């Protein structure tokens, strides 16, 4: 993907913020238990910057576990949706490459489904700057389990139909820059699944950047074909989506 394509994808989410909030997957409770274990501290009472917070799907879960969360989000549309759904959570406009935060002001800096939109050569030093000693940079992604037959076929279908299709099936290249800093880095994976309706699957797809940037006629044709294909696979209308949560926790020196 070129820099211009990357920017177009990154800027596409504001227009699909409602679909994003309505249909994107949540995260299992075990994820936050694992974050607490690897970070060596409870989320309750922690000062957390949730960067690239989007519509606040992970932000609300962090808040619900007692963290004092500030959401950092560059997209006006996504930030507006977050404020509408969760007015109790403060939101500031900003990006991970240049955080609008004081030095040593956070216990955790989290990125849920967002770190791959940053330039790690800038975002990692920025996270280190705003973290307190012994703080943690926490990166996590929900990844559909493409080893499951129908999900692997779905990926092939979308890659063939949409020239801008991309899927972050492996995140080694995204997280590798962490190793060049004085951080203690741990990677782990968790598995979970959700059951949703076919129309929820379609709404989720609408919120993907590679659908959002597609020409409207192409997008609607591919989504109509997807609806028909899923209906044949799941005649009862219930779709089981298995996920792997890819989690990286990088601790700063105490």
TrEMBL record:
Keywords for the protein's UniProt record, in alphabetical order: Methyltransferase, Transferase
CDD domains reported for this sequence: AdoMet_MTases
InterPro entries for this protein: Diverse_substrate_MTase, Methyltransf_11, SAM-dependent_MTases_sf
GO molecular function: S-adenosylmethionine-dependent methyltransferase activity
Protein's UniProt keywords contain Transferase: yes
Highest taxon listed in the record's lineage: Bacteria
Swiss-Prot/TrEMBL GO biological process terms: methylation
Segments forming domain Methyltransferase type: 49-139
Family stated for the protein in its record: Belongs to the methyltransferase superfamily.
Name assigned to this protein: SAM-dependent methyltransferase
Source species: Streptomyces tateyamensis
């Amino acid at each position: 993907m070129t820099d211009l394509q990357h920017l177009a994808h990154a800027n596409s989410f504001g227009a699909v913020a409602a679909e994003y909030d309505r249909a994107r997957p949540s995260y299992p409770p075990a994820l936050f238990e694992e974050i607490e274990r690897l970070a060596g501290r409870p989320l309750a009472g922690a000062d957390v910057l949730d960067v690239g917070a989007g519509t606040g799907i992970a932000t609300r879960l962090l808040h619900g576990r007692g963290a004092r969360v500030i959401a950092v989000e560059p997209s006006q549309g996504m930030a507006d949706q977050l404020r509408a759904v969760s007015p109790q959570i403060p939101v500031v406009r900003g990006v991970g490459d240049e955080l609008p935060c004081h030095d040593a002001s956070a216990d955790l800096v989290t990125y849920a489904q967002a770190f791959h939109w940053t330039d790690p050569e800038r975002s990692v030093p920025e996270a280190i700057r705003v973290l307190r000693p012994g703080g943690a940079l926490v990166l996590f992604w929900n990844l559909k389990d493409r080893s499951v037959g129908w999900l692997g076929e779905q990926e092939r279908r979308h890659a063939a139909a949409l020239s801008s299709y991309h899927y972050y099936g492996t995140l080694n290249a995204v997280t590798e820059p962490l190793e060049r800093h004085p951080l203690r880095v741990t990677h782990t994976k968790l598995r979970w699944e959700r059951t949703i309706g076919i129309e929820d699957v379609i709404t989720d797809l609408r919120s993907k950047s590679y659908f959002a940037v597609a020409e409207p006629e192409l997008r609607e044709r591919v989504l109509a074909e997807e609806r028909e294909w899923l209906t044949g696979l799941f005649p009862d209308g219930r779709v089981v989506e298995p996920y792997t949560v890819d989690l990286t926790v990088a601790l700063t020196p105490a």
